[in-house]
Design a protein that fits this description.
With about 200 residues, the protein is an all-alpha fold. The chain has one domain. It contains eight helices and no strands. It has helices at about 1-15, 25-30, 35-65, 75-95, 100-105, 115-125, 135-165, 175-190. Helix 3 runs antiparallel to helix 4, helix 3 (about 35-65) packs parallel to helix 6 (about 115-125) and helix 6 (about 115-125) packs antiparallel against helix 7 (about 135-165). The longest helix has 30 residues, at about 35-65.
């Protein structure tokens, strides 16, 4: 029974409530890093890690610091500080392990800190009632990792399409950002097909 709940949370955050294509969060890296598949994959893996870890740490901070001291109004500030620390860690690791990926991601890597999809998943974990729920920590982490996988899926789909569009005969006034917005809209419409699914 519990496994079904975790699979439902995972499936829902990847497909039904995809942060990029359904909730329109995190569009800056989605549009900026989705030009090439390798940089999109690198950014996606970084986002999966940061979302999962942010869900883990913010759960504890909220439950054991903010609630007991009656300072839940500071959750956004506390969550951003946690996310910023995790992004710094990821940035240092990527710079050491893969300097070429670090260069390819450029400014978008430190911008994960202000990526509203990552802040969104931490706030949604609280708003979903996971703080007081059974297995709340695990549900939060599953939702965070699922959100990261959904973000990565959206990035990879967009990067694959954009690489193919480079070879396509597109009217001059649609090249670049206009066709990217059209494709993003079509992908969002396609993901709406998952919204009626239930387990």
């Amino acid at each position: 029974m519990e496994l079904k709940i975790f699979l439902t949370i995972l499936f829902a955050t990847i497909f039904i409530n995809n942060y990029v294509l359904s909730q329109i969060l995190g569009l800056c890296p989605f549009l900026g890093v989705s030009k090439k598949l390798d940089s999109a994959l690198g950014m996606g893996l970084a986002v999966i890690f940061v979302m999962g870890m942010a869900s883990f740490f913010t759960f504890f901070i909220y439950k054991y610091v903010l609630i007991p001291y009656g300072i839940t109004y500071l959750r956004t500030l506390a969550f951003i500080l946690i996310i910023a620390g995790l992004v710094q860690l990821v940035e240092m690791i990527i710079e050491k392990v893969s300097p070429s990926l670090y260069q390819a991601l450029g400014i978008f890597l430190p911008l994960i800190t202000t990526n509203c999809a990552i802040l969104g998943v931490t706030v949604l974990n609280i708003d979903s009632g996971f703080i007081t729920a059974d297995y709340g920590l695990l549900k939060s982490v599953v939702q965070g990792i699922g959100g990261g996988i959904g973000f990565t899926l959206a990035l990879l789909l967009m990067a694959g399409i954009r690489e193919r569009l480079e070879l396509a005969d597109i009217p001059e006034n649609l090249k670049g950002l206009p066709i990217t917005f059209i494709v993003a809209g079509l992908l969002a419409i396609a993901f709406l097909g998952f919204s009626g699914m239930s387990f």
